[in-house]
Amino acid sequence: MRRVVVIGGGPAGIKAAHTLVKQGIHVTLLESDALLGGLASSFAFQGVRIERYYHFICKGDDHLVDTLEELGLSRLLHWKSSRMAYFVDGVLYPFLTPWELLRFEPLPLHDRLRAGLAVKLAQRMREEDIAPQRAIPWLTRLFGERAYRVIWEPLMRFKFAEHAPEISAAWIWARMVRLSRSRTNPWKEELGYVEGGSKVVLEGLGTDFERRGGRIVLQAPVEQILFESGRATGVRVGGETIPADAVISTVTTSRFRKLAQGLEGSYVERLARIPTIGIFCLFLRLKHQTTPFFWVNANDPRVPFAGMIEYTNLNPLPELGGDRILYVPQYLSADDPRFAQDDEEVLRSYSDALALVNPAFDRSWITYSHVFRDRYAQPICLTDYRTTTPEIRTPVPNLFLTDSCQLHPHDRTISGSFGLGLEAARLATEALGEARG
Q: Where are the domains of the chain?
C-alpha cells in the first residue's frame, strides 16, 4: 500500500491527509501539539472551548464551504451582517456604508469622497500591475496623505509592524477584493461563522480521516525528513523512523528548513528570504458588550493596539450565557520587547485603552483573560512574492511543502489553507502514480 506522511495538523495538513486517505492511501498525520488545528485550534476554559484566535468567513471562501457540505455540516454555517468602526482621537466612528464614510469627520469631505472612489478604482486593478509596488506609497497616491494616515496606517502597523514599508500593494488590493465579495450591496456586508467554531470542521475532518483508516499521532514533533537517492524516504519522530513513499510538510518554512537539511539550492534560498512575523493576542471574556462592532481599528496615540475584534458581535456563542468575547491582537516580531510583556502588564494597559473606546468599560467586566503568542504566525508579502514564493512541489520529487506565503497576495485563511492542502494531495498522488509507473 502507498504510504504518505503529513507533517503538521493545521488546516492544510488535515485537508491534505483527509483527501489522500479517501483514495485508499495509508496516511499518517503528525502533529507536535496535543490537539489538531495549528493557529486555528481551540482551547478549553471555564467549561467551554473557543478558538485561540479570531476567524471569520467571507463569500468566496469556497474550499471551507465545500468541506462543510462534504461533512454534512452546512447547516452550521451562518451569515450575518457585520459592522466595523474606527476609533480616532477619542471618538468611535462607524465605518462601512457610503453614508458612514460621508460622515467620517476625521477627514475633510473631499478626502472622504476620494477614499470611496479609490476603493472602487483599486478593485478594478490587476494584481500583476501592482504587485511590484510598495503598499504605503501606492495607498498614499490613491487615497491621499491624510486618508492614508487615518485609515490605512493603523492596519499596516497592525498586520506588519516594522515590515510595513516593505509590503506589496497587492496585499492591500487582495484584502479589498476579498471583503468586497461579502458586500451584498453598498450598505451591507455579510460575514460568516461556523456554529461551534472552526474546531467543528477541523475535528470533523480528523474524525472522518480516522474512520477511513488514517492515523493521527499527536505530541509528535518531527525531528528530520529522511532522504535517500534523491527521494524522501520517511521522517524521524522520537528517535523512530516512519517510512513513506511521499512526505507533505505543512509546518512553517523556517521549521521545514531545519527538518529538510538534505535539501539545498535556490528553492531553500528563496524560503530563507521570506520574513515571518509573530502574533501577540489578548483574549478576554467579558460580562458586557464593549462596542456594537465586529471590528474596530484604532488610531489614537493613547491606545497601544491598532485593532480589536469583538467576536460575539458576529458569532453570539450562546454557550457563554450572554458573555462577550473580545480579541485584541497585534502582529509583532518575536524579537520586539512587547512580544514578551508580562501578561498582567498587557491586561492593565489594554484595559485602560478599552475604557477610552467605551468610557463605561470597567475591569470588573473581565471574567477571564489570557495572552496567546505564536512566533511564526504570518509570512510577509513582499513586492517580489510572485518570483520568490516557493512551489508546493519541492526539488525532491516526492516531497511537498505548503505554507501560507503560497496564498499571497491573499491573507491567510482556513479556506485558503484547505486549498493548499488539496493541491498538495493532488501533487502527491501524481508523484505516487509516477513512482509506480
A: 3-55+198-274+390-436, 76-196+276-379
Report which of 126, 140, 141 is spatially closest to residue 173, judged by C-alpha positions: 126
pLDDT digits (tens, 9 = 90+) for 324-357: 999 999 888 888 888 888 999 999 999 999 999 9
Residue 95 gets which letter from DSSP? -
The CATH topology of domain 3-55+198-274+390-436 is FAD/NAD(P)-binding domain (3.50.50)
Distances (CA, A) of 415 to 15, 63, 64, 83: 10, 5, 5, 22
Chain segment 19-74, per-residue pLDDT in tens: 999 999 999 999 999 999 988 889 888 888 999 999 999 888 999 999 999 999 99
Under DSSP, is residue 391 helix (H, G, I), strand (E, B) or coil? coil
Write the pLDDT tens digit of every residue in 96-132: 888 888 899 999 999 999 988 998 898 889 999 999 9
CATH (residue range 76-196+276-379):
3.90.660.10
Other beta carbons less than 10 A from residue 151's beta carbon: 24
Residue with cell 489538531: 36
